[in-house]
Write a structure and sequence with these properties.
Layout lengths: L3 H4 L5 E18 L2 E12 L16 E3 L2 E9 L2 E6 L8 E6 L1 H25 L3 E6 L4 E5 L6 H16 L4 E6 L22 E6 L3 E4 L14 E8 L5 E7 L1 H21 L6 H35 L7 E6 L4 H10 L6 E7 L5 E6 L2 H14 L2 E6 L2 E6 L5 H19 L1
Parallel strand pairs: 14-15
Antiparallel strand pairs: 1-2, 1-6, 2-5, 3-4, 3-6, 4-5, 7-8, 8-13, 9-10, 10-11, 12-13, 15-16, 16-18, 17-18
GO cellular component, one term: cytoplasm
Cofactor: Zn(2+)
GO molecular function: alanine-tRNA ligase activity; ATP binding; metal ion binding; nucleic acid binding; Ser-tRNA(Ala) deacylase activity
């Protein structure tokens, strides 16, 4: 069965009736977290909302005033997941999210055109494709594509777009001899009804269930952004079609203006300016590390030279790393002194090091770890790791001082 969205991809509103409505659940991600929604699966007499298939995501839209959250295909039927029940037999108006639909039409028809010309011009076969939210990818069965080939392919693609080449839909029976002549990666196991062919006049005939433009001119333009290494000697060709090219240009220009303001140079000098900045930052980081090491040695020596020093030393510094803390611990005689060091934000995450006599370190280490909500391990008089929060650092310090006094009194 062909849905109304497949018979006429440009229909934005459609009146139909509810055939069935049953309780259902939908698993989806919200801000990276998987959630299960309770709702209803609705089947309609016909639909303009495309169910996911052929590498194309499903449409979004409304049935009446109820949002459709997912559309899937079950055999010849389209199943619409909604949050509120609909009455069986009820006449309803279906509206499609046209911006999303037309974007999918442009990307999908663009993929057909790119795939066909890559094969015709260079013999590069498409093994799969992905219609992403921001950019789309075609997997080519070739280890690499030369820059000159990419340029020639892009020019040929946009020539066809400017030529206003018609795109038509044919419905053929499965035993029609013409089916053997079209490009296809096979039919789904539960396919039912006629075979749908997308025909780009003089360019390509391909078996496909998706929604497409009726003329290549509706693609506006296609930009091949480049290639990336794919899996098993394959190449991923990255492209944008239609309105995505315009949005990409708008975003790129906005970024360019921001960089002009930040770098105080014209667009042509941005790469050189950033390269200089990176080199300066690396040099400053190297100098900073050297100063931190020298500071660590001086801190330790200052403690050792203090005749009033105790058997406990504690220090927190916002800037620093594990090497900074270990230098201090190495310089101080930790066989006699318990050393507690932290680096990072005072009440935020950071690093810690507890060093000293192996007995006290082994006894107090796990409690220090717990108080700092951290992860770490210890051996041979050292216990160190990452702290999720240094907010209780003062409590840890007081706890260690009490332990030192208790340990000293026991020895006396």
């Amino acid at each position: 069965m062909a849905f109304q969205c497949q018979r006429d991809c440009y229909v934005k509103e459609f009146v139909t009736s509810v055939v069935s409505c049953s309780p259902a659940e939908l698993k989806h991600e919200v801000s990276g977290k998987k959630e299960t929604l309770k709702g209803f699966n609705v089947k309609l007499q016909d639909t303009i909302l495309f169910p996911e298939g052929g590498g194309q995501p499903d449409d979004h839209g409304l049935i009446g005033d109820v949002p459709v959250l997912r559309v899937t295909r079950q055999g010849p039927a389209a199943v619409h997941f909604v949050s509120s029940p609909l009455e069986v037999g009820q006449e309803v108006q279906v509206k499609v999210d046209w911006e999303r639909r037309f974007d999918h039409m442009q990307q999908h028809s663009g993929q057909h055109l790119i795939t066909a010309l890559a094969d015709t011009m260079f013999g590069y076969k498409t093994t799969s494709w992905d219609l992403g939210r921001q950019r789309s990818t075609i997997e080519l069965d070739i280890p690499c594509v030369k820059p000159a080939q990419l340029q020639a392919l892009e020019e040929a693609i946009n020539e066809r777009i400017r030529a206003h080449v018609p795109v038509t839909v044919q419905l053929l029976s499965i035993d029609d001899p013409a089916v053997e002549k079209v490009r296809s990666r096979g039919l789904p196991e539960d396919h039912a009804g006629p075979i749908r062919i997308i025909d780009i006049e003089g360019v390509d005939a391909n078996m496909c269930c998706g929604t497409h433009v009726s003329n290549l001119s509706h693609l506006q333009v296609i930009k091949l952004l480049g290639t990336e290494k794919g899996k098993k000697n394959k190449t991923n060709l990255i492209f944008l079609a239609g309105n995505r090219v315009l949005k990409y240009a708008e975003k790129s220009y906005s970024t360019e203006r921001s960089l002009v303001s930040l770098l105080k140079t014209g667009p042509d000098e941005h790469v050189e300016a950033v390269d200089k900045l990176q080199k300066s930052v690396k040099l400053l980081q190297k100098t900073n590390l050297s100063l931190l090491r020298d500071m660590a040695v001086l801190i330790a020596q200052n403690f050792k030279n203090n005749p009033q020093r105790s058997n406990f030393f504690s220090l927190h510094k916002k800037e620093g790393d594990n090497e900074f803390m270990n230098i201090i611990a190495n310089e101080i005689n930790t066989e006699e002194t318990l050393v507690f060091l932290t680096v990072g934000e005072e009440k935020g995450p950071g690093l810690f090091l507890l060093a000293g006599p192996s007995g006290p370190v082994a006894e107090t280490g796990p409690q220090v770890l717990d108080m700092l909500q951290g992860k770490g391990a210890g051996k041979n008089g050292r216990f160190q790791g990452k702290a999720n929060s240094l907010a209780r650092r003062g409590e840890v310090e007081a706890f260690l001082q009490r332990h030192c006094k208790h340990h000293t009194s026991e020895e006396e």
